Amino acid sequence: MPTARLTLEIASGRTYxxxxxTRETVLREAGREIPADVAVVGFDDSASxxxxxxxxxTIHQPFEQSAAEAVRVLNELIAxxxxxxxxxxxxxxxxxxxxx
Length: 100
Hints:
single chain, alpha/beta, Rossmann fold, 31% helix, 17% strand
């Protein structure tokens, strides 16, 4: 068996991803362990990331700030301040836990 460590990237969003517990089960049934054999990194830093076994390394995004920016852009659009789509770059943070 190769000794190289496999990195599995999992992102939330528009595509469906099975629950982390399902992935953990499949990996363990295949004789793989997180993070010894497979590094798992999620996105959104949800509450389930902390309770996963092992706790999930994830990318945190500021939901409240994102909502405030969306409201601000919508209000400016309603007020006629913009005619083109607005792009807002939001800060993110890597939250290192035990899965990677």
